Amino acid sequence: xxxxxxxxxxxxxxxxxxxxxxxxxxxxxGWEQRLPAFLHPPALLRDRVGLAGERVVTPRLALLFxxxxxxxxxxxxxxxxxxxxxxxxxxxxxxxxxFDALLILVFTGAAVRIxxxxxxxxxxxxxxxxxxxxxxxxxxxxxxxxxxxxxxLLMAALVELPMAALCARTALRVLSLLEQARPYxxxxxxxxxxxxxxxxxxxxxxxxxxxxx
Length: 213
Hints:
Layout: H1 8-29, H2 43-52, H3 60-82, H4 92-115, H5 121-141, H6 146-187, E1 191-193, E2 196-198
Antiparallel strand pairs: 1-2
Helix pairs in contact: 4-5, 5-6
C-alpha cells in the first residue's frame, strides 16, 4: 500500500488553505477591484486589513454617498434656476441663534478633546471648520445691504475663514498621525473585529511577564 510522504498532508493542506485564502480575497473584493486605481486603499492595508480582517466601515457606504451626490446634482441645478432671489424667512432669529449655539457646543467640545489629547478632536475640529465656512457663506449671501455685505466679507476674511483653516489643519494633523500609525499596527498583527482594534495573540514561546520585543 502506497503511503504519502510524512508531512504531505500538511503541505498539501497548506497549499489548499493558501489557494482558498487567495480565492476568498478575490471574491470578497468583488466590485471594488473594478474601481479606478486611485480609489483603492494602499496595498498593505488592502491585503491585511481590508481582506484578512473585518472592515470598520463597509465599502457599500461609499455607494450610498456617491448615489446621494448624483441625486443632489440635478436638484441643485433646479434650485439655482427656480428659487427666487429674495425670500422672506420665518424664525430667522431661531435659525441664526441656534446655529451660533451649535458653534458654541462644537468649540467647547474641541477644547475638551484637545486638552484630553483625544484623537476624536479631529472630528470635532472638522465639524467646527465646516460650520465656520457655512457661517461665512450665509453671512455673505444673505447680507441685505452693501454695508452689511462689506461687514460680512471682512468677518469672513479676518475671523471665520482663518479659524476654519486652523480647525481643518488641526483635524488633518491628528488624522495624519493615525494614518502613519496604521501600517505599523498592521505589521504588528493587529486586526479589526466588530469595529474594535484587536491585538495579536501572545507568542507561546514568550515567557509570561517578559517585555515585548
